[in-house]
Every structure is written in structure tokens, then in C-alpha cells.
Amino acid sequence: MTDRALAVVRAGALTTVQDAGRPGHAHLGVPHSGALDRPAADLVNRLVGNPPGRAVLETTLNGCAVRPRSSVTVAVAGAPCRVTVEGRPAAWGAPLRVPAGALLDVGPAVSGVRTYVGFAGGIAVEPVLGSRSTDLLSGLGPPPLADGTVLPLGRPVGVPARVDVGPQPAPPAELVLRVTLGPRDGWFTPQAVRTFTSGAFRVSSASNRIGLRTEGPALERARPGELPSEGMVLGAVQVPPDGRPVVFLADHPTTGGYPVIAVVRTADLPAAAQAVPGTPVRFVPVRRR
Amino acid sequence: MNVLSVGEDALLVEVSSDDEAQALHAELLRRRAEGSLAAREIVPAARTVLLDGLDAPARLAAELTAAKLPSAPPRARAVVEIPVRYDGPDLGDVAAHWGVPESEVARIHAETEFRVAFCGFAPGFGYLTGLPSRYDVPRRDTPRTAVPAGSVGLAGPYTGVYPRSSPGGWQLIGTTDIVLWDHARVPAALLSPGTRVRFVPSAPGAGS
């Protein structure tokens, strides 16, 4: 292997390779996948001079540590955290140079859930169906990072951004998700629909890249029985038999048989990716534009 | 056709049967191929077709609501043959549901021509229809924590083949060595919506 590579020293709780995902294959049962907080992934690519959509690392809660074999421009954004290079504090949210063999440590998230680490040239693992993303539902793409994993890096093509810090939103203290009702809101009692749009929900610790699970009032069905499997979209709010809404995120299944009471606006999903367990959630109905 | 809005840029088109869903799916694929429909995803399912990533969903919804359902699609040319050993652990239970001897399960299944109604659950997993409704079977009361790759199972009106080992509640009647999904292959999926399928019995232990 060339020396354009990274050795993983501390993989963290769950660190995956993510890019813009693999759209266009849902009819074969292939999830979209891709970075959950796309604006943060786009930002780290922009900061290191990559074109959009290059593969980056997505960490979960406690960061990761890597040692590049050759010097490389790096940027860390998304969930705020302490960043060090060989133990010395380094910038978060701005390009930084990591010398060959130096340890880059991306610390635990101070707030939020997922930190993104971009490298000039991008992570260059072999693409699967046009994407390098790890898909945790179906197992496509590279496995989650493990200590000792070596990841190839691509050749840098751009110039790092000349900024002191890239502006980005703070992780949400309260997660407000705008929704359009349907397509299966008719499967719930009017009271359940009112509860959905006015009730106090919280982010459940059982949330993952497949779905943001909620705790709170259970939504009562007006119609019993099974819904024949139907296609599912990103942001669909599916209600399983326990009545607790689940918001589908990037690795969601492409078809499903539980009724979808509403769909969250795509623009609100990056915040959902950064909401820690316990964060209050409100579903706010809006009209279609 | 009943057209439901899904979020900002998707539509769910409801029809009344599996055949209608397949005909509508074929028609929508044809329209996308000729350039008159722009959709990122066209996902058929049991009684619906989902159109996702649309530029003008409201206009398309109005158009589809007024449109007549297309007639049945032309049959796909080739038949995919799946060699199968009818040696599954639930063969006896399925025979009991069907009210036939175990050996008859294999004969009836292998004489049926199936069609992939839709995919889902895992990459390369097809929901195959073709058995008459009197042969519907329930899922197992307790799903297995690990169903081996290549297991051929039944659930409700569907037959399916597990592309890889996973938990599952389908009634298992057989095993195949064929590779359902290989992302290094083009196409990666052996089965896609509309594919015709036949199961070809092989003797226990044959080919292994």
C-alpha cells in the first residue's frame, strides 16, 4: 500500500466511512445510506479542498484517533469536540495540517452525536454501487472502523479553504421536526394525530443510523391489521405496533409494512442526526410547498 | 389509481392488486426511460408504486389521478432458474398447512412460475408471487435468529430466497447454492422487480 493511508488507532464506539450515499437502487432493496449530517460532511470536504461527496469519517459520541502515514490536510466538524495532534490542541471547524506519523485524536462530542473528519483527497476505499458509504442495515460498503484498520486516501485535487472557522449550527437543545402528514395518517385515531403533533417526545437511546426512535405517548391506531409492504422514503415517520414514532434516517429499509403517519422535511434531518438521547422532540405539521 | 403525497417530493400510487402494481411499475419505468418522467427512485411493492425524488409532484399527482391504469405489461423474456434442494426444516409444517404430503410441497412449488413482485428486506431479496392464494402460509410464531444464506422460504402469499444469513420468520422449505447478490457482478441482483423465476429441484447433496 502507498503511504497515502491512515492507520486507525482508536476506532471509537461506531466510526464509519460516509459519502453522499447510493441513491437509485431502492427497488432492489438497497438503502440510500450516506452521511447523516450532510451539511457537516460537506463542510469538512470544503475545508480540506475536496469536491463535494468525497468519503469522510462519521464518528458516534466518542470520536476516534488515526495516524496518517503521510502529511495530510484534515478538518473536523459536526458535533463539537476537542481535537489534538500529537497531544497538542488543534482547530475544530477549520483546516489543519497533520504531519506524517502524527496522532490525530478526535475527542468525545461535547454536545451533539456525530463528528465528521475530512481528509484532503478523501477516504479511497473501493466503492460499492457507486458509493463508499457503510450501510449498517444491509452491510454494503466497508465495515465500521476497528482498531488497526488501514484506510487508503485519495490524491488531493483542491486547495484547502482559507478560513479561521467554518460556521455551523449548534446541536439542538430541542429537536423541532417539520412534518407533512400522511400518507397513512388515516390509520390513526384523530386523537393520536393530535398527540403526534402536540405531544412531548424524547430521543430514545435506541436510535441509530437506521432510525431516530422516540419515547413518549403511544399513538393509537384507528385501523387494525397489516398494511401491505410499501416503499419508504427518507424522513418517513413510521409507527410500529408499540405506537412510538420512528423517523427513518439514511440506512432505513426501502420497503416496510408499518403505517407512516407523516414525513419529516429533509432540511430538518441533519439536526436529528445530532440530537442526543433525551433531547425533547416536537413534530410540527406544515403545508406542502 | 389513488395518488397519495409523501413528504415534499414523493408520491405513493395505490392500485388494487399485485398485477396492477406490476403493470404500473413497468409503465413508469418506460416513461422514465423515454425521458417523460424524472424520478430518482421507482419502488414497486405489494399494492403500490412509490415515486421518490420528483421535481413537480403536484402536477404528476394530478396527471396520474386522471390517467387510466395501464394494461398488463409484456412478460419478461428470460426465466431465471434457481436450483433448489427441498430440504427445509419447515417442510412438514408447510405440508400440514397445505393439507398435502411433504413430497407434494416440492412438486407444487417447482411447477409454479413465479414473478418478482418487489424487492426489500435486504439487497437482492425478492418477494415472489405465483402460488395460488390457497397456499398462503403464516410466518413462524417465533422468528429464527439466524436463517442461512440460500434458504428458500414462504410467508403469506410470497416465496423468497435469503441472499445472506439474517434473522427471519419465513417458513423454510429448501436451500439453493445460487448467489442472489454479488455487488462485484453486473447486475449485482439476480432478481429485480418483474423477473420471472422457476425453482428446479436438485437431489439432496447434488452439486455439493
Description:
The complex is a heterodimer of chains A (289) and B (208). Chain A has 289 residues and is mainly beta. In chain A, 9% of the residues lie in helices and 29% in strands. Chain A has helices at 38-48, 190-198, 269-273, and strands spanning 5-10, 16-18, 56-58, 64-68, 72-78, 81-85, 88-90, 96-98, 104-109, 115-119, 150-152, 175-181, 201-203, 211-215, 230-231, 236-238, 246-248, 255-256, 260-264, 280-285. In chain A, the strands form four sheets. A seven-stranded mixed β-barrel of chain A has the order 12-19-16-17-14-13-20. Chain B is an alpha+beta fold and 208 residues long. Chain B is 22% helix and 32% strand. In chain B, strand 3 (41-44) and strand 4 form a beta hairpin. The longest helix of chain B is centred in the first third of the chain and has 17 residues, at 18-34. Classes of the chains: A mainly beta (289), B alpha+beta (208). The interface between A and B is large, with 35 and 36 residues.
H/E series of chain A:
EEHEEEEEEEEEEHEEEEEEEHE
Radius of gyration of chain B, whole Å: 18 Å
**What structural class do you assign from the helix and strand content of chain B?**
alpha+beta
Strand content of chain A: 25-35%
Number of strand elements of chain B: 13
Spell out the key features of this protein:
heterodimer, A: 289 residues, mainly beta, 7-stranded mixed β-barrel, 3 helices, 20 strands, B: 208 residues, alpha+beta, 4-stranded antiparallel β-sheet, 4-stranded mixed β-sheet, 4 helices, 13 strands, elongated
Chart the SSEs and their pairings:
The complex is a heterodimer of chains A (289) and B (208).
Chain A: E1 5-10, E2 16-18, H1 38-48, E3 56-58, E4 64-68, E5 72-78, E6 81-85, E7 88-90, E8 96-98, E9 104-109, E10 115-119, E11 150-152, E12 175-181, H2 190-198, E13 201-203, E14 211-215, E15 230-231, E16 236-238, E17 246-248, E18 255-256, E19 260-264, H3 269-273, E20 280-285
Parallel strand pairs in A: 12-20
Antiparallel strand pairs in A: 1-4, 1-11, 2-3, 3-10, 4-9, 5-8, 5-10, 6-7, 6-9, 12-19, 13-14, 13-20, 14-17, 15-18, 16-17, 16-19
Chain B: E1 2-6, E2 10-14, H1 18-34, E3 41-44, E4 48-52, H2 57-66, E5 79-84, H3 91-98, H4 102-111, E6 114-120, E7 122-129, E8 144-147, E9 151-155, E10 158-161, E11 166-168, E12 171-175, E13 196-201
Parallel strand pairs in B: 5-13
Antiparallel strand pairs in B: 1-2, 2-4, 3-4, 6-7, 6-13, 8-11, 9-10, 9-12
Helix pairs in contact in B: 3-4
